[in-house]
Structures are given as structure tokens and as C-alpha cells.
Amino acid sequence: MTTLNGFAQFGGGPHKVIALNGWFGSSADWNALTPALDPERFSYAFFDYRGYGLSRDKDGEFTFDEVASDVLALADHLGWQRFSLIGHSMGGMAMQRVMLAAPRRIVKMAGVSAVPACGSRMDDTRLAMFAAAIGDVTKRAGIIHFSTGSRLAARWSAHLAQQSERESRREAFAAYLPHWATGDFAAQVEGNPTPVKLFVGEHDPAITAELTARTWLTWYPNAAVETLTNAGHYAMNEVPVALATALENWLSEP
Predict the structure, then answer these.
(1) Confidence class of residue 2 from pLDDT cuts 50, 70 and 90?
(2) Disulfide check for 27: which of 41, 46, 165, 202 has CB 3.0–4.6 Å away?
(3) Which ranges carry the AB hydrolase-1 domain (predicted)?
(4) Are the CB atoms for 81 and 105 separated by under 8 Å?
(5) Model confidence over 74-86: pLDDT tens digits?
(6) What Cα–Cα distance (Å) separates residue 136 from each residue in 69, 89, 131, 144, 233?
């Protein structure tokens, strides 16, 4: 019998939402948002990939197709026939694999500094830099510091890096990297009618509004982008109340 991935739940409202974290994260990433989320209008499931967080001890292939299967198994377990998706960073690619696996079940998708379906298109040099972070927490902290605009306390970046090391198994962390760094399934989402909202941080040097316009907005005709003030790549940590408000405002639109 297949066991479910670990997840945390919040709220009991009619609009069901499953949230997927980024490469450095876990389901705990969303904790700072919960004081601003509406539990009467929404039901949230904060999902952990195999090898991460509450699923840290769960083995697997560590692919996005596997993630899609696991997310759908969770939705079935919860009795959620239709639901929306939130994906942060790497979770942007992962949620699109869920949508492609079961397009009629997805109400909306919300991306937070979300990697598009073409992946990050890393060259060998940049890929090597990220690969070096797999076994080096200091390099993880350096990436976090850069991706938040090199403007926040180094101590905070180090804290996030140490947390990521605790919350993910090294083999899982390593295995997911090529899927979001060099994977590309853009041709499969071109023209997709799913409503999508992309939230980008004004200080994020990588996932910018311009990049989002060239990728997500090109492929999804019902997509829009919103820039979050005073945020970099980690809006759920940097501006949690503003992000929670923006997410639920959009999810509530007809």
C-alpha cells in the first residue's frame, strides 16, 4: 500500500488549495502566512515532496512526474475533486506537472517567484554553482542572499540555508535540481487556458516581471503578473502578510 506524502493542513473553507515549496524549502515555508489566511473561505494543504520536510524519510525517484502523482493522491485522500495550486520557485514547475496530469481538476494556479515550464535554462557554469550548494551550506546561503537582492542580513540567509539542510535529504535535494534547472516542457503548456497569477519580488534578480512576461504570459492566455514591493525571491519570508493577502484576493476572483 502506498503511503501518502507528509502535509500540513490549515482551514476548512470551500476553496481547496495545495501549496508546493521551492528547492530550499519545505511545507513549513507557508507557516508565516497562516495568520493572514482565511480559514472559512479556504482549505490549504501544504505539501512536502519526497525527501523533504514531513516526507523527508520517504524514498522515491524525486521527479516532478512523481510529485504530480503524489499531489493527486493527496487530493484524492482529502476528497478534493477540484483545487487550486500555489508553487514557489521550483514549485512553479512542479505545479504545472500536476496541472498537465489532471487539467480538469485544477481551478487556478498561483506562482510565487515561480520557475516557468522552460526551466531556469542554466548553462554549465551556473548549474555547477548550484550543484556545489548541495553539500555546502555556505554556498546555499550565498544563493539565498543573491536571490533576495543582496540587501538583507547575512544572518537571515544563513538561517534559511541551515533550515534547508535540515528539511531535505541531500540525495533528494540533488535529484530535483536538473528537473527545474534544465528541464523544458513549455511546448506542453502553450495555449493552456488555466487561470494563472504570477507574483514576483521587485528585488528578485532571476525571476523578474520581464522574464515572467516572456514565458508564463506567452504560454498561458489567462495569466497576469503582479510585483510584490520589498520582496526578493522568498516573499513568504520577506512579506508574508502582503503575499497572503494578494494570493487570497486573486483566488477569490470569479
Answers:
(1) low
(2) 46
(3) 17-245
(4) yes
(5) 999 999 999 999 9
(6) 31, 20, 9, 13, 20
Task: Name the band, by pLDDT with cuts 50, 70 and 90, for residue 151.
Answer: very high
Which three-class secondary structure state does DSSP give residue 44? Answer: strand
Between strands 7-10 and 42-47, the pairing is: antiparallel
Helices and strands, counts by H and E, the chain: 11, 7
From CA 216, how far away is CA 196, in angstroms rounded?
9
CATH fold, domain 7-251, is: Rossmann fold (3.40.50)
Half-sphere exposure of 215 (CA within 13 A, CB side): 24
Q: Cell for 80?
A: 478534493
With a threshold of 0.90, does the pTM exceed it? yes
From 196, 201, 198, select the one nearest 228 (Cα to Cα). 201
Domain boundaries, the chain: 7-251
CA–CA dist 83, 106 (Å, integer): 5
What pLDDT, on the 0 to 100 scale, is given for residue 3?
86
